[in-house]
Amino acid sequence: MVRPVIALDADGVLLDYHLAYAAAWERAFGSHPEERDPQAYWPMDRWKVPKLRLWRRSRFRSEFGELFWSTVPPLPGAIEACHRLRDAGYDLVCVSALEQRYEAARLHNLRALEFPIERVIATGHHEMARSPKADAVEAIGAEVFVDDYLPYFRGVASHIHTALVLRAPNGSPNIGPEMVLASSTHQDLPDFTAHWLSR
């Protein structure tokens, strides 16, 4: 029997990119950044960090390699939410706007954390009229696509339920006329899961 598929974004839905960003900063510069705004959508706004130039920017970027993408911590309740979905009969596939060379690192990360996810599709990131994730989500026959970045719903087929995780509101791109692209909105993955399984 073919199980229905739910496509899940990683950073902001399954994994805490903000904490990983702070850890990368500490590895690069020797000190953990202070928190400025816990409700900030973007990590550079959440943490009290300066804008980087030249070699310091290069030094920080060097931290975003295999180690980074294989050790991002989980968001609260995300692992349990995925197990609930899996136990309810769904196959879960991670569709991430990540460079393809880090696809295996992301899968290793999810497996190490015991997410019930056996496949990662890395689409890369492109700001276009059609989301780079749209083709991947349709190709796997997803019934639902869960993401925390509204522009990634651009071009997704209308028969796919698009669930938007709102999370931190300050500076969020999840506003405006494109909100019509979201079939439903949720504070986090556990909130989506409770909603979806209670239908």
From TrEMBL:
<dbReference type="InterPro" id="IPR036412">
    <property type="entry name" value="HAD-like_sf"/>
</dbReference>
<dbReference type="GO" id="GO:0016787">
    <property type="term" value="F:hydrolase activity"/>
</dbReference>
<dbReference type="Pfam" id="PF00702">
    <property type="entry name" value="Hydrolase"/>
</dbReference>
<dbReference type="InterPro" id="IPR023214">
    <property type="entry name" value="HAD_sf"/>
</dbReference>
<keyword id="KW-0378">Hydrolase</keyword>
<protein>
    <submittedName>
        <fullName>HAD family hydrolase</fullName>
    </submittedName>
</protein>
